[in-house]
Amino acid sequence: MSRRAVITGVGAVAPGGIGKKAYWDLLAAGRSATRSITHFDASPYRSRMAAEADFDPVREGLTQQEIRRLDRAAQFAVVAGREAVADSGLTFAKLDPTRLGVALGSAVGCTTSLEREYIVGSDVGNKWEVDQTYAVPHLYDYFTPSSMAAELAYLVGAEGPVNVVSTGCTSGLDSVGYAAELIAEGTADVIVTGGTEAPLSPITVVCFDVIRASSTRNDDPNTACRPFDKTRDGLVLGEGSAIIILEELEHARKRGAHIYAEIAGFASRCNAYHMTGLHPDGKEMAEAINAAMTQAKLESEAIGYINAHGSGTKQNDRHETAAFKRSLGQHAYATPVSGFKSMIGHSLGAIGSLEIVGSLLAIEEGVIPPTANLHEPDPECDLDYVPLVAREAQVDAVLTVGSGFGGFQSAMVLRRVEEAGR
Amino acid sequence: MSTTTSTEKARTVVTGIGLCAPNGLGPTAYWKNTLRGQSGIGPITRFDTSKYWSKIAGEVPGFEPAEHLQGRLLPQTDHMTRLALVATDWALWGAGLRSTDVPEYDMAVVTAATAGGYEFGQREMQKLWQQGPDFVSAYQSFAWFYAVNTGQISIRHGMRGPGAVLVTEQAGGLDAVGHARRQLRKGVRMALTGGIDSSLCPWAWVAHQVSGSLSRSNDARKAYLPFDEDANGYVTGEGGAIFVLETADSAAQRYPVRVYGEIAGYAATFDSRVPGREPGLRRAAELALADAGMSTKDIDVVFADAAGTPELDKAEAEAINGLFGPHGVPVTAPKTMTGRLFAGGASLDLASALLSVWDGVIPPTVNIRHPNKDYELDLVLDDPRHQRVRAALVLARGRGGYNSAIVVCEYNR
User: Fold this and answer.
1) How many Å from the N-terminal Cα to the C-terminal Cα in chain B?
2) Which keywords does the record carry (chain A) (predicted)?
């Protein structure tokens, strides 16, 4: 008997708004939340913009102890997790905890807290032998990001498999794919999954500066991320979290749960090419897409919308455009494609999950969010990228993809679930 | 997403082991030294410890990266990635696979991580804050992050199958292997998997010291004493192991390849901190046994997590005795010779378990002078025990509540 993994709850902390509704309003309006960095003085840096979340942990219900102990990324995950739990309608205390797991994606973990503590202990970089005197007691939990998945596990009382999946910029897709595999193989019935990232600190900003991957359109931060536009000049960082309740189909049906969609297929491939570079032929991403489509038992024509990686770099735009054509053939030209990073920036290990949640809402609402800031299409990117304005469309299956440093290429197929008994 | 029942039962065997340990580089040296009870724990040489109260660790000795890796890789890699790349080369070599034999899309790469390339990260952080943004390495974006080893390994050998990286603190070295086996069951032919870790730099050391788990002793023979009355914390170390996994069919087609053993069962559980719940370690072991279709009678040795603190040692002894009965199975912790290796530790234990099965000998636990009688464990102390090992159970725990277990066994075609 085959087991299917379906999504029955979502929660989001996103730039432009906390909660799934605010997030969807932003996407549907095609509004961009990128702006000049306010979290710290970014004046020494090449790229000084980001899509920041206006997140007040007190207003979101975290205690002072939680705020001191948890890195911002973990705080996001807890807040989005609580929303997802409520949204699912599941009474977690009544579930068999041994059949309940967690799979959380994150690319850079608790870097923001680590950097803050480093600055204190090293006397702003003056000491190689970092001083231990002022180290916070939970420093070790920042050191290894498994502490963040543990936090979600405590939230729901999980005693099944718990994991952090950390594959760089595809983490938020891979964590959910991992969770779907666990449900399909029968290891768990419910998994709290998704991704979280709060990378907006100097060390991460400078990482993208030094390889010139980020945009320098600092005078026009609100339109800086321009995927598939010939004037694009790089990515804009973001932050946020999306948490997803993944449930075995029959488990969800038995309790009459609202089902957003099914994870019909998932695959990842390594490009084995370069740690940061992409080959323009898009071959490995196409392989991942093909594998996910095969698993979903779908023909290309079934895909009604492609949620692109759309990071806003020339190499990415050409790479994934080629991958869509290579995998879906002619149907790639007939399918709307859009990129959320034009609106919410690139939140590294969280973005894949935020894109899944946005895609689910697109299925629910019958609206495809646009690619913002796309005024002058790159002639080499010749697909339908839904520029500027959202489009009404009945969508039954979405392909969402991710691509990241280390060569990771991932693809997932989300499909509307038929009514029970059919 | 549905399971593919046709390949679900695909048996997973280990045909290559590459390892770097504080008491030996490569499986041959490591195994010889381990059976002799030779420890690799000693004073830290990689940085000046005079300002820190903890001064010992298990460092991998005699590792000269330039002897093994091209020059262009050195500026872009942390120490732990260099160890992982070299161990990978050895694992492939041992499995009789040249880079050109790697089955491209049919080979997955799954590694475990805890803190990424931390020493590299500290150096770049210092440049940023002392000298300014222009001085930060262009490689910082990937040399530090947790995914680096999977990325670098896949690039070095043209492995284009599924890629993954798992972080479950010190349980990760088993979870990675469990997930690699999952890829084989889904139809991939081979996987490169395991964990290698190192965080011997001052900035990591501060984190280790505040963790509350490090031993307060700086005497290499008295610091890490799991299951001893004097247990007082653990010693850290660097290293780990990398494996070539393949389906039994694939190995049979490549005959005569050496098959160390079979990954027969795997499971992971979590301690939720809900009051009144049993710790999950025993359940992980039970699930792994059930997954392997075995009972406790089939297990000839347990490789313990051996946390080295009284509370965790007691919990582990209870889990083992709950399954096997008091003194019901030989228990060993060769990691008393290496220290705990974080993402690499459980992988190194798995390597030891496979070598035990292959070689018919159980490696010893060292330095234990006053084994706690209340634990009622049959600890293999000081000297190796020569006996047939049909199957071994490997246990691992990660901070926060992570438990994992793997069963390996003799492979009979």
Assistant:
1) 32
2) Acyltransferase, Transferase
Q: What is the rounded CA–CA span in Å between residue A417 and residue A296?
A: 12
- Whether the per-residue pLDDT at B5 is higher than 70: the answer is no
Among this protein's residues, is A346 annotated catalytic? Answer: yes
CATH at residue B174: 3.40.47.10
Helix (H) or strand (E) holding A270: strand A261-270
**Interval B385-411 mean pLDDT:** 98
Of the pLDDT bands very low, low, confident and very high (cuts 50, 70, 90), residue B9 is low
Same domain, B269 and B249: no
A272: number of Cβ within 10 Å: 24
B114 and A146: CB-CB below 8 Å?
yes
Question: SS3 for B163?
Answer: strand
How close B175 gets to chain A, by Cα (Å)?
A: 9
Amino acid letter at A44? P
Residue B288's nearest CA partner among B196, B392, B376 is B392
* Cα distance between residue A133 and residue B366, in whole Å: 34
pLDDT tens digits along A394-408: 999 999 999 999 999
Provide the residue range defining the domain that includes B383: 265-409
Last residue of a domain, one of B208, B223, B253: B253
Measured between CB atoms, does A208 come within 8 Å of chain B? yes
Mean pLDDT calculated for residue range B241-254: 96
Residue A277: count of CB within 10 angstroms of its CB = 12
Among B76-90, B95-109, B157-171, B316-330, which stretch is predicted with the lowest mean pLDDT?
B95-109
- Residue B10 is predicted with a pLDDT of 84
The CATH-assigned architecture of domain A5-110+145-415 is 3-Layer(aba) Sandwich (3.40)
ipTM greater than cut 0.90:
yes
Token pair, residue A248, equals 């075995």
> Is A277 an interface residue toward B (CB < 8 Å)?
no
Mind giving me the DSSP string for A94-145?
A: GS-GGGEEEEEE-SSTTHHHHHHHHHHHTTTTT-SS---TT--TTHHHHHST
Low-confidence residues in chain A, pLDDT < 50: 422
Q: Is A169 a catalytic residue?
A: yes
Whether cis (ω within 30° of 0) applies to the bond prior to B256 is: yes
Query: In this structure, what is the dihedral angle of CA atoms A9, A15, A18, A24, given to the nearest 10 degrees?
Result: -50
Amino acid at A78: V
Q: How far is A12 from chain B (nearest CA, A)?
A: 23
For the segment B325-363, what is each residue's pLDDT rounded down to a tens digit? Answer: 999 999 999 999 999 999 999 999 999 999 999 999 999
Of A140, A186, A264, Cβ closest to residue B207 = A140
Instruction: Quote the pLDDT of residue B400.
Output: 97
- Give the distance from residue B274's alpha carbon to the nearest chain A alpha carbon, in angstroms: 6
Residues B63 and B106 both lie in one domain = yes
A406's CB contacts (< 8 A; 6+ apart) are A167, A168, A270, A275, B142, B145, B147, B148, B150, B151, B152, B154, B163
- Dihedral of CA atoms B355, B358, B361, B365 in degrees, nearest 10, equals 20
Please check the confidence at residue B6 and state whether its pLDDT lies above 70: no
CA atoms of A277 and A183, how far apart (whole Å): 34
- The residues with which A404 forms a beta bridge, in sequence order, are A408
According to DSSP, the residues that pair with A422 across neighbouring strands are: none
**Does B95 lie in the same domain as B238?**
yes
Tally C-beta pairs within 8 A across A and B: 296
The answer to whether residue B4 sits within a structural domain is: no
Query: What pLDDT score does B3 carry?
Result: 43
Strand pairing partners for A235?
A: A214
B141 has pLDDT over 80? yes
What domain count does chain B have?
Answer: 2
Q: Cβ contacts of residue A134 below 8 Å, gap of 6+?
A: A120, A121
